[in-house]
Queue: 2 jobs
Job 1
Amino acid sequence: MNQEYLSFSEEVLEAKRLGKPIVALESTIISHGMPYPQNVQTAKEVEEIIRQNGAVPATIAVINGKIKIGLSDEELEFLATSKEIMKASRRDLPYLIASKKHGATTVAATMICAHLGGIQVFVTGGIGGVHRGAGVTMDVSADLQELAKTNVAVVCAGAKSILDIGLTLEYLETNGVPVIGYQTDILPAFYTRTSPHHVNFRVDSPEEAAALMKAKWNLGLDGGIVIANPIPEAFAMDESVINDVIEVALKEADSKGIQGKEVTPFLLSRVKELTEGSSLEANIALVKHNAKVGALIAATKAN
């Protein structure tokens, strides 16, 4: 990897020099996942939670064609407010770098950049997956393919509720990606603590999670790990209510001809409106909870 494409913040460089644990964070949630000013406020609070739990945060984005690993407050503000930020997955990284443009990294792109930067733990809200109706549209998130090959553990609140979670799990199984429940046997579904699906394995502590990561990669079993951490009970939404809302939003997306990577931002925005903002509150709570668990795992693994 040519280091000319990577730019580390001073905080992250110092952490690498001292061997401190580092946790990667995506930036799509800032530019495309939440409204302003909640997006930049949440980003800063999540970074602080990671620091308070023994690790160093590294929010990742592409700015002026550079992969930035660790962002300044000014860069966070830029991502939160600029209309020039492209939603960037694996496919988009070469173009953004070559043309010196700006991109907010998805789960897939953040995994790639974290791996290039030597970071093994990544915190996000929920992973992408197989979209409902994918048998016709072939709409499958690049996140799943990245999980199949890139050695990064992804701490998340399960798969986004807007997806076909059963098919998402089938895809992960085919590609040998372990789906781990953190203190749960049931796969959480982003806004809800439960779904009709079970995880593959359960761990109950950061130590168990870190040991599993070490065993997988020491065996040469390349690919990511999903560590599914349920949304805190106080912020969890009712499963039937959220599913009804998602059905309405999906029909609207279909009627408007919204496709590809525009689907998820549209659905999340409509779900927020239809739930009168309670889904945004849930989204913020689950990201913060994931940040705490991810930092604890990274800190354990570094020791």
Note: The domain at 3-302 is CATH 3.40.1790.10 (Indigoidine synthase fold).
Job 2
Amino acid sequence: MCLFCQIIAHQIPSYKIWEGETTLIILDNAQDMNYHMLIMPKKHVTNIMACDQETLSHLIKVIQMISNHCIDHGFTGVNILNANGKAAGQSIQHLHFHLLARKNGWY
């Protein structure tokens, strides 16, 4: 079972931001910056190429929802990042998107 599947199954603790029936959003524990979130399907899918349209479509809707929530609560922008495959820098083989909530003047 991959790391994210263990987090989804509550076998490993995480700081949950939002959870729906098919999607989980947690804070990244790398602590490289404030408000670094990971958005992932609860269903194990290795990357975007292996993802079915329904799951991917739902993920994008959740990404849009949380992005709008960030903007509505004082942030001025978001970065949305995704890597697919080891050569692209994907370190955990479970589809996920990084969402970084940003404010003007933050780097």
Note: The longest strand covers residues 36-41.
